[in-house]
Amino acid sequence: MIKISCTYGYIAILLAISLLVLPSIALALTNVYRMDLTIQKDDTVKLKIFELLPSGSITKFPTTPTDYSLKMLSKNEEIFKTYLDVSFEAWPDQGPPIQLDEANLYLRLPYFENVEKIEIYHGEKLIFSHGITGFNWMEFLIKYWVYVLVVVLTITIFIVVKKYYL
After folding, report:
1. How far is CA 160 from CA 9, 16, 26, in A?
2. What pTM did the predictor assign?
3. Contact 32, 108 (CB under 8 A)
4. 65 exposure class (CB count in 10 Å sphere: 0-12, 13-18, 19+)
């Protein structure tokens, strides 16, 4: 009778750990590209940051057409397209808007395994292109080792509980 209650205790502990860990794992599986860039009025684009994040939400993009658009391509076929909200005005609390020479964009783009490049257009004019190399799993694992450690520990606990107590 004691062994049965211990077994249920270990199962309860395993379930509690799993419930704490699973949301993190689910978030870790929703990769997004982080892209921070500056667009100048003369259509010069400076990429500040481009990286793959293990989790995050995608930027809410305009639903109506704008002057600027972004495409994600695979083998020169469009797999994702959106419009960008680019503004060269700053709105102070009081007074008229201030005209700026550049606009900063902080984008979170959906992850596609087969994406090869990202392009930004001003109207029909291509103003920026960024090639994406293959995804490096080892770099991802090193950068986000905490997620990997949690997954490995959960699997280990599950195996031990199953082997010795079930």
Report:
1. 14, 16, 23
2. 0.65
3. yes
4. exposed
